[in-house]
């Protein structure tokens, strides 16, 4: 009898944004422990009537792993349902280690991260040719200390795209520090709260000098992604460097380029 726990990315909130693989697994699950603070209960809607469903909101890490181990010991199909993708700020390894010790197999199903859902909601591209080709997924220092070399000021020195998780209550610190290192006050910032949560989703577009006030007005104080990027707002730009991928003169594995006047 195999003893196993599946760590499953639930996606950013919209039940349709879970993977087909995860949905199929939920259909067969005997026990689901979901992170109720960020995963809507609707994500368990495909489960069998006798599936044990528990919200982990009030549980400590030990209680979570004990619960998972207990369920898995009985040979059940056990799912730990996590918000977004389990590899990002999800305490994955803290949960996997006790399972390893208990001899329980582990498998992870990835999910759509809120960083991607926030970009989608705002119709933004996090990379643009000759603007930035780099995305930094990070957070700012609150109660969790940042490792050496990873302060916001150091990471932002690249002027690439920043997606800040878990940082909305520290927005004042974010804007202050970026201006201190030379970002223009009118640098664009987009905040998306509850990306993909239907009518609860809020999208706020502003600048380093306006965004804090805008978020206060919108009462955004949790479950929000902060995106700071030179690509923001590109939809309205008149001049755009086009991606080589779709350039008619660019040969790649699936298409032979043609020579045009402009490509000579
Ligand atoms: N593993 C998750 C992140 C968990 S940390 C992922 O991949 O998305 C929790 C933080 O993620 C929140 O503080 C917020 O910054 C962000 N977040 C989670 N769901 C969100 C959503 N639907 N919209 C905007 N931000 C969200």
Poorly predicted sequence stretches spanning 5 or more consecutive residues: none
Backbone shape: globular
Task: Name the average pLDDT.
Answer: 93
* Total count of domains: 2
Instruction: Please tally the helical runs, counting DSSP H or I stretches of 4 or more residues.
Output: 7
Q: From the alpha-carbon coordinates, what is the Rg to the nearest angstrom? A: 21 Å
Main β-sheet: number of strands, strand sense, barrel status? Answer: 5 strands, parallel
Give structural notes.
There is one protein chain. This protein has 264 residues and is α/β, with parallel strands linked by helices. The protein has two domains: 4-109, Cobalt-precorrin-4 Transmethylase, domain 1; 114-234, 2-Layer Sandwich (Methyltransferase, Cobalt-precorrin-4 Transmethylase, Domain 2), CATH 3.30.950. Helix content is 23%, strand content 20%. The protein has helices at 20-28, 61-73, 92-101, 114-121, 152-156, 171-180, 211-217, and strands spanning 4-9, 31-34, 52-55, 77-82, 105-109, 135-139, 161-165, 188-193, 202-207, 224-228. The strands form two sheets. Strands 3-2-4-1-5 form a five-stranded parallel β-sheet, with helices on both faces. The protein has a five-stranded mixed β-sheet with strand order 6-7-10-8-9, with helices on both faces. The model has no long low-confidence stretch (mean pLDDT 93). Bound molecules: S-adenosyl-L-homocysteine. S-adenosyl-L-homocysteine binds at residues 12-13, 38, 83-85, 88-90, 113-114, 117-118, 165-166, 192-197, 223-225.
């Amino acid at each position: 009898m195999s003893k196993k726990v599946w760590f499953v990315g639930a996606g950013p909130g919209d039940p349709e944004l879970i993977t087909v693989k995860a949905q199929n697994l939920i259909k067969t699950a005997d026990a689901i422990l979901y992170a109720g603070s960020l995963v809507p209960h609707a994500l368990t809607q495909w489960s069998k009537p006798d599936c044990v469903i528990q919200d982990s909101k009030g549980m400590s890490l030990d209680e979570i792993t004990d619960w998972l181990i207990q369920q898995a010991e009985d040979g059940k199909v056990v799912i730990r349902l996590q918000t977004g993708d389990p590899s990002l700020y999800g305490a994955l390894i803290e949960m996997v280690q006790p399972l390893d010790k208990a001899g329980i197999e582990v498998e992870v199903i990835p999910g759509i991260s809120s960083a991607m859902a926030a970009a989608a909601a705002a119709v933004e591209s996090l990379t643009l040719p000759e603007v930035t080709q780099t995305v930094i997924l990070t957070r700012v220092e609150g109660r969790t200390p940042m490792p050496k070399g990873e302060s916001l000021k150091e990471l932002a020195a690249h002027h690439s795209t920043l997606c800040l998780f878990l940082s909305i209550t520290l927005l004042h610190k974010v804007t202050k520090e970026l201006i201190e290192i030379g970002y223009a006050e009118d640098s664009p910032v987009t905040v998306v709260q509850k990306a993909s949560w239907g009518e609860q989703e809020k999208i706020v577009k502003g600048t380093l000098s306006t965004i804090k006030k805008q978020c206060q007005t919108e009462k955004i104080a949790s479950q929000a992604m902060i995106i700071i990027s030179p690509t923001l707002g590109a939809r309205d730009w008149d001049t755009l460097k086009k991606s080589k991928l779709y350039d008619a003169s660019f040969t790649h594995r699936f298409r032979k380029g043609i020579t045009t006047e402009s490509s000579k």
